[in-house]
Fold this protein.
Amino acid sequence: MRIDLHTHSTASDGTDTPAELVRGAAAAGLDVVALTDHDTVSGHAEARAALPEGLTLVTGAELSCRLDGVSLHMLAYLFDPEEPELARERELVRDDRVPRARAIVGKLREHGIPVTWEQVARIAGDGAVGRPHLATALMELGVVDSVNDAFASWLASDGPAYVEKHELDPFDAIRLVKAAGGVTVFAHPLAVKRGRCVPESAIAELAAAGLDGIEVDHMDHDAPTRARLRGMAADLGLLTTGSSDYHGSRKTCSLGDCTTDPEIYGEIVRRATGAFPVPGAGG
């Protein structure tokens, strides 16, 4: 089985619609794909309706969190999307995305970059606006060569245009996801090229609070980092996943570039009580 547990669609900051994404996952030879848009589940219905036969959909979301001033992302799988407290927190995060993006535009313009809100809104379309849309605007203007370049410079957590947004405390995120019957995995925990990362001691604290796993095999983790994370996971009793973090044409990675072991996937499904994987019926 080939299993990719971290992808994004136009419901947040990817360039493929949910339908295009699941069709692309099947074409890439995947058996299981998780749709984990940022702080939203709005793409799940379209993905279900278009799900090709032979492909299983794992519903999820990537939750925006902050710990001691450091942003981090928490992948949440197979939770009940109607659970009111978690739904309310997702809405608070989404509501803060537009003011934050407008503030980043303002900072960029203060530095002489002629980006406009209209340009960013056009790029975002109906998706939940985020930094990848701003990074694409910077690419269009020739300020950076790639989305990764934008995140490593202007939009990094310590960059000149960075603006904070409402984000969950990760301990609250774990509690809320578990209360909704879901499973939590810390996304790309040591992706230093994105900006500051939480200390490794914080991962141990999150594990003690009920964190289920950490994303190890990811394009932003080099080989020594992956080895260190595997050792940490073994010491803390955490599951280890691998994923592409696919964003369509916004990033250089492809669906299935990194995958999750079928036994780990089976354990994630076993632990989940809020929702179940959706088998494709040839939609």
Remarks:
- DSSP finds eleven helices and eight strands in the chain.
- The first strand starts at residue 3 and ends at 7.
